Amino acid sequence: MLITKFLHNCLNEALQKLIDEQNITNFTPPAYVVEKPKNKTHGDYATNLPMQLAKIFKENPIDIAHKIKDKFDADNFEEISVASPGFINFKLSKIWLEKEIIRCIDLKNNFGNQNKNNKKVQVEFVSVNPTGKLHLGHIRGAVIGSTISNILESQNFTVTREYYVNDAGNQIDFFCKSIIERIKELQGKDFKITDEMYSGIDILNISKKIINKYPDYQNYDFSNITEDEFEELKKISIEICINEIMDDLKSLNIYHDNWFSESSLIDAGYLDETIDILKELNLIYVKDEATWIKTEELGDDRDNVLFKSSDKKPTYFATDIAYHRNKFKERYFEKVINVWGSDHHGHIKRMELILEKLNVDPKNFNVILNQIVSLKSNNKTVKFSKRSGNSIFLSEIVEEIGADACRFSFLSRSSESQMEIDLDLFKSKSAENPVFYIQYAHARLCSILKNAKEKQIDFETEKILSLETIEEINLAKKITEFPELLHRVSENYGVHELTFFALELSQLIQKFYENNRVFDKDSKGDQITKSRLIITKASKITLANLLSLMGMSSPEEM
RNA sequence: GCCCCUGUAGCUCAGUGGAUAGAGCAACUGCCUUCUAAGCAGUGGGUCGGGGAUUCGAAUUCCUCCAGGGGCGCCA
Predict the structure, then answer these.
(1) Which among A350, A428, A429, A464 is most buried, taking Cβ atoms within 10 Å?
(2) What predicted TM-score, i.e. pTM, was given to this entire model?
C-alpha cells in the first residue's frame, strides 16, 4: 500500500476512536494532509490533522496531537512525535523499509505499478496537421503525451495513444497547393509560393519523395488539374507527410496506437449524425448562410460557426465535436486526455459545454495545456511559424543533442510554464544535461551487479537485508516513495515531477556508491556485501523503471 | 477591451496553506594505489515582481498595481 494512504487510514482510525470516546456527533472530518516535511529532521512524514481539528474540538492542537498519537499502533514506526504548533511526525522503521526493498526486488519491472484501475482511457497528443515535418514547438506535447500514457499504463489503465490527423479543411488544401508548386519547381517550370502556402524546406523534400515514389508526377501538367486529381495528390502528400512525422516521433521513442482521420468522420456520416443530435437539442441555427451553434446560450462568450457560408464545409470545431462524441459515445473511452498547445485554451470551455449537452461528464474530459515554446536568438524572441518555415526541425534537435537529453529537457518543466529556448545555449548545455548524471548512476549500479555475477555471489535466494548506514537508509526511503510518485502523476499529470525524482534518486545512489563499498578488496560475499547488493539491485530496478516510463534508455555502461 | 499562463539564487526551473524557501548549471575550496572522477565532500549566493487583505501560519488564497508571453477567425 502507498505510504500516505496507509497513514491516512491509520489517522482516520485514530480519529474515529477519539470521536467515539468523546461522544461527538454531527462531525465532518476536516481536510488534512499527510506529506513529507521539507525539513528531514522532523521525520519522514507529517500531518497537520491536529491543527485542522483544533477549531472543531475547541482544544489546543498539541493536546489533540498527543491524543491521536496515543491511539496509534506504533509497530511500523521508529518514532511518532508531536511538534508545535500541532504537527504529528512519523519516522518509518527500518523493518518496514527493509520489507519494501525486498518487495521491490520481487516485483522487478512491475515495481511501482498498480493493478486496480483498469479504466479505458485515451490520450490524444501531437495531432499536428500533416502539413510538414515536426519542429521544436511540437516536441513538448509529444514528450508529455507519451510519458503520461506510459504512467497511466503503469497504473493499469488501458491506454490508447491517439494521433488525430487533420486531413480535412483548407489548411490541408494549402499544403497540397504548396506541394504542387514545389513539384513544378522540380520540373523546372515557373512556380509561385503565396503567403498562405507552406514554404519550408520540408515541403520540397516531401515533393521529391512524391516524385520518387510516383514517377508520373515527374512530367505531370498541373495547369488543368481536376478535383479528383487534386484529391489524389492530396492523399499521397498526406501519406508521405505522416510517414515523416512517424519517423520523427520514433526517434524520440514515441508511438501511437491509432491514427484517427478527421475526414473519416465526415465520410462515414458521423459528423452529420452529430449535427442532427445537436439540432434535436435545439442548438443549431442558420444565419448569413452559415450554420451556427448556440454556445453563448450554454455559457460561452459567443456563438460559433459549424459550417462555413462560402463552401458549406465544416469548421474545425464542428468536426472536433463529432470527434469527441466518437471518443465517448462510439468507442466508450471512460476518460479522455488531450495534450494541447495553449493556443487551444478558448476551445476547452466550448467543448466542455457541448459535451455536457451530449451527456458526457466533463470530469472525464481532461486537457493538459502546454504553454508555448519559443525560440530566443541574440536575446530576441523569435516567433516561429510553420508556414514560413523559419523553425527548427525536431529531427535536427534530436540529432544534435540525442533523444534522451531532449526528452529530459522538455519533461523537466511543468507544462504550464513557458519555455524560451536559446538554441545555442540549449545545444551547448546538453552535455551538462542531468540526464547523463542519472544514467551514470544507473551504469555504476550495473557495474556492481556485473561484478557480483562474476564473483558468483548469490544474494537473491535468501535476501537478508540490513539497512545500516545513513546512505543506505536514505536511498531505501526514496525507493519506497516511487510507487507513490507514479500514482500521484497518474492523477495530476505533472510529469515534470518524474525528472526531479530521477535526479534525487540518482544523487542518493551516487552517495551510496561513494561511501558504502559493496565489495572489499578480497570480498567473497559476506553479509554486508549481500545486503548492499540487495539495495543496489532495488535501486537499479527503480531507476530503470523510471527511465523507461520517461521514454529514456538505461545504459549498463558509459 | 475580455480570457489564460508566467514573474522565486548570476542562469534554467521545482515548491501552490505548514516548520529554517530548494535543485541543476555557473563560481570558489578540497578528494582518484580501492566496485566507472560523466563522481564525492564543502563554501558563497534570496525584498519569492510591488503593495494591501484573509489566519495560529502565505512563495502558495483573495484584491490591486507593474512586467513578459499567449489567446479572443466562417484557420486548424
Answers:
(1) A350
(2) 0.94
